[in-house]
């Protein structure tokens, strides 16, 4: 069976993208699934698209397996969430490789301090910790990371 295809998201998929985002976030153990959370994420997808997100999905023959949101002008990987049924299958690594194609020289990102699985994975993938700061909207302490392409000598 071929792996999911990474492609630009379509506007008619935004609600399902929010569901993938919620289910993946809930799988971290940091939140519980709810209609309230889903509604907030649906609203946020539209809001962030207007603010400049470039949004991609991993499409598994019509099922959304993951979402990836980049803010290209800022070299920023904003969101990378893999649906629980697709976790542990190297899809995250494929999405990160895809991100490096779009941001080949530098990538910044942040993740919730309590999401140790995520930030440890980014560290293994070559990201360097820079700082921690509280996100005022959510109250979560965020860990900020940067990856830079190594310069040839």
Write the layout of secondary structure elements.
Blueprint (H helix, E strand, L loop, with lengths): L4 E4 L5 H13 L8 H16 L3 E7 L2 E9 L4 E7 L8 H12 L3 E7 L3 H9 L3 E7 L6 E8 L5
Antiparallel strand pairs: 1-2, 2-3, 3-4, 5-7, 6-7
Structure description:
It is globular, with a radius of gyration of 15 Å. The chain has 4 helices and 7 strands. The strands form 2 sheets. Strands 1-2-3-4 form a 4-stranded antiparallel beta sheet, with helices on both faces. Strands 5-7-6 form a 3-stranded antiparallel beta sheet, with helices on one face. Helix content is 33%, strand content 32%. The longest helix is centred in the N-terminal third of the chain and has 16 residues, at 35-50. β3 (63-71) and β4 form a beta hairpin. With 153 residues, the protein is of the alpha+beta class. The N and C termini lie far apart (41 Å). The mean pLDDT is 95.
Poorly predicted regions: none
The overall pLDDT average reads: 95
- Helix content class: 25-40%
Main β-sheet: number of strands, strand sense, barrel status? 4 strands, antiparallel
Strand order of the largest sheet: 1-2-3-4
């Amino acid at each position: 069976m071929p792996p999911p295809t990474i492609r630009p998201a379509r506007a008619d998929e935004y609600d399902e993208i929010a569901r993938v985002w919620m289910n993946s976030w809930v799988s971290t153990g940091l939140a519980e699934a709810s209609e309230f959370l889903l509604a907030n994420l649906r609203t946020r997808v539209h809001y962030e698209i207007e603010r400049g997100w470039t949004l991609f999905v991993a499409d598994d023959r019509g099922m959304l397996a993951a979402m990836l949101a980049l803010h290209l002008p800022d070299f920023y990987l904003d969101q990378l969430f893999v649906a629980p049924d697709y976790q542990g299958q190297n899809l995250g690594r494929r999405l990160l490789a895809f991100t490096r194609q779009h941001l080949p020289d530098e990538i910044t990102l942040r993740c919730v301090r309590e999401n140790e699985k995520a930030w440890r994975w980014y560290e293994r993938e070559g990201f360097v910790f820079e700082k921690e700061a509280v996100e005022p909207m959510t109250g979560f302490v965020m860990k900020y990371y940067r990856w830079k392409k190594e310069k040839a000598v």
